[in-house]
């Protein structure tokens, strides 16, 4: 017998309460029961997004709402700024390219944060920019960009700010309204502690004005269709919604409200601190720079002489622990410990213990227990 541990930054573990809630018998979506559920879920989403705006839901992974942002806000030939400091920033660029958008690409090394001054400069030089796309928490690298400052800049221009907060929401602060974030997106399988398959996007008044002017083709992913259904006296969805997932989300949001957003964010900060200190105590080097360290995932350099691919594979095959490797040019060079959503202290300790054992087996000189010890100290000093 071997127990499995999924320590990845998406998909993430799902609490038993959420899983069980989805086992209830199917019910029809054109019913008062579904409307009641939808209203409660909307309220919960507004709570975690910290917004008064509508939060629209689509049956898709996160990439679906990323694409919907382009299709609903823009017209062919429009000019946008796309910031890329990792895999998901690159995806935003690719989606805009696919729709024939004129892209000003602000490109950064993968260990850098997005520089708000660069955005300001481009907005000043290009008054016709329609939108600014930025990733808050780059899951490929753990780097967290300062979207609060970026929001403070973009609000004074005509452009709308589109934020991929897919591993931000439910892990780190993302104050949609207070920070002037026009469009904020997340996916169910990240901080919301849900299975994959549902994506959410909040839309500000400024963004709705852009939607009115947009002529790119859209149908299933039309924000207007979705909002029209939501605003009916008995709120509903334009098409058959993923009923079970919405039931699960209702339960996940209930758990999140019970814990409280502030406590959730604090918990992620402590988990990340333990993952970092534990890794450093093994003599490993953290990938992300100090000023850009997010709390959703901890990326660590694979030490010299160790095969990164083998580390991840052995951890899985020998100990049942799934972590993430590096992506693209970082493949084999870093490994990433996820601690986003339904994670607690002993998830971090389990992962660190497994990494220590595998590193030792791969010939890296580590004193067993050093990483776990450092994490224990963090948890004892910062109770939650
Ligand atoms: C997971 C993720 C996405 C979306 O990926 P999907 O596989 O389509 O859900 C987008 N951006 C970031 C930062 C992510 O972590």
When the domains are counted, the total is: 2
Named CATH topology of the largest domain: Aspartate Aminotransferase, domain 2
Structural class: alpha/beta
Query: How big a fraction of the residues is strand?
Result: 15-25%
Could you tell me the number of beta strands? 14
| Main β-sheet, spatial strand arrangement | 2-10-9-8-5-3-4
What's a concise summary of this model?
By secondary structure, this protein is of the alpha/beta class.
Model description:
The protein has 384 residues and is α/β, with parallel strands linked by helices. It folds into two domains: 16-258, 3-Layer(aba) Sandwich (Aspartate Aminotransferase, domain 2), CATH 3.40.640.10; 260-381, Aspartate Aminotransferase, domain 1 (Alpha-Beta Complex). The chain is built from 13 helices and 14 strands. The protein has helices at 16-21, 32-49, 62-73, 87-98, 116-125, 147-154, 205-213, 223-230, 243-259, 261-281, 308-319, 345-361, 370-381; strands spanning 5-6, 54-59, 79-84, 102-107, 129-135, 137-138, 143-144, 160-164, 183-187, 198-203, 297-301, 321-322, 324-325, 334-338. The chain has a seven-stranded mixed β-sheet with strand order 2-10-9-8-5-3-4, with helices on both faces. A three-stranded antiparallel β-sheet has the order 11-14-13, with helices on one face. A two-stranded parallel ribbon has the order 1-12. The protein is globular and about 60 Å long. Bound molecules: pyridoxal-5'-phosphate.
